[in-house]
């Protein structure tokens, strides 16, 4: 299965994407992880977009298409994948559809995580991430077993610059303007599966599996 997770910042795409990837035994491919890797390695691309990402904006479409396509062409994605954070807008979706090939076949299903904005702000205010493995935690809903440390590798957890509460209004504005129209785009293709993203991660994942039953 080739799946996409859509949803505003704080809706749980990282957590649910990893759960679904594990369930399907395919890789979770997150554009956020790709971007953070480039920023950490101080590549030309990373230096180019660092300030944009910290401010809550997106990377240029052509760059994202390029790096996502490279990742999808790797052997572990041949049997399927879960895309988290891509596509971000209609232009990316149309470009990706137009460049489909045997190496990067078309998307099968799009899961739209839907939740109210008050809950999103509360979630992102308590969100922490492991800089080593990328595991996402939420201090109220999904805290680490040991405060401030990743369950997987004991790395010190950090707050991403884009999760600063001051950036949330802008990030939500960008989401509503650029990403939300994708729900209609994929609904017209018969690929959209709306899922209530409120509640515990386990409850949300149960709803995702239920939404995928007809696949």
TrEMBL record:
EC top class, as a word: transferase
Function noted in UniProt: Catalyzes the reversible transfer of the terminal phosphate group between ATP and AMP. Plays an important role in cellular energy homeostasis and in adenine nucleotide metabolism.
Q: Name one GO cellular component term.
A: cytoplasm
Q: Which SUPFAM superfamilies match?
A: P-loop containing nucleoside triphosphate hydrolases
Q: Which InterPro entries match?
A: Adenyl_kin_sub (IPR006259), Adenylat/UMP-CMP_kin (IPR000850), Adenylat_kinase_CS (IPR033690), Adenylate_kinase_lid-dom (IPR007862), P-loop_NTPase (IPR027417)
The segment annotated LID runs over 126-163
Query: Which GO terms label this protein's molecular function in UniProt?
Result: AMP kinase activity; ATP binding; zinc ion binding
Recorded protein name is Adenylate kinase
**What family does the entry list?**
Belongs to the adenylate kinase family.
Report the domain remarks.
Answer: Consists of three domains, a large central CORE domain and two small peripheral domains, NMPbind and LID, which undergo movements during catalysis. The LID domain closes over the site of phosphoryl transfer upon ATP binding. Assembling and dissambling the active center during each catalytic cycle provides an effective means to prevent ATP hydrolysis. Some bacteria have evolved a zinc-coordinating structure that stabilizes the LID domain.
Question: Could you mention a single GO BP entry for this protein?
Answer: AMP salvage
């Amino acid at each position: 299965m080739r799946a996409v997770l859509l949803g505003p910042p704080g809706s749980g795409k990282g957590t649910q994407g990893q759960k679904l990837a594990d369930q399907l035994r395919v890789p979770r491919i997150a554009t956020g992880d790709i971007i953070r890797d480039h920023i950490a390695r101080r590549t030309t691309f990373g230096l180019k977009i660092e300030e944009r990402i910290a401010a809550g904006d997106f990377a240029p479409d052509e760059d994202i298409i390029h790096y996502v396509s490279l990742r999808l062409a790797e052997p572990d994605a041949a049997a399927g994948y879960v895309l988290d954070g891509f596509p971000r807008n209609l232009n990316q979706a149309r470009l990706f559809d137009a460049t489909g090939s045997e190496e990067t076949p078309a998307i099968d299903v799009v899961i739209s995580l839907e939740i109210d904005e008050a809950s999103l702000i509360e979630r992102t205010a308590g969100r922490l991430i492991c800089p080593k493995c990328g595991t996402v935690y939420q201090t109220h809903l999904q805290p680490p077993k040991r405060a401030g440390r990743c369950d997987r590798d004991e790395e010190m957890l950090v707050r991403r610059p884009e999760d600063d509460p001051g950036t949330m209004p802008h990030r939500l504005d960008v989401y509503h303007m650029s990403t939300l129209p994708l729900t209609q785009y994929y609904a017209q293709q018969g690929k959209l599966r709306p899922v209530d993203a409120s509640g515990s991660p386990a409850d949300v994942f149960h709803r995702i599996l239920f939404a995928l039953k007809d696949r």
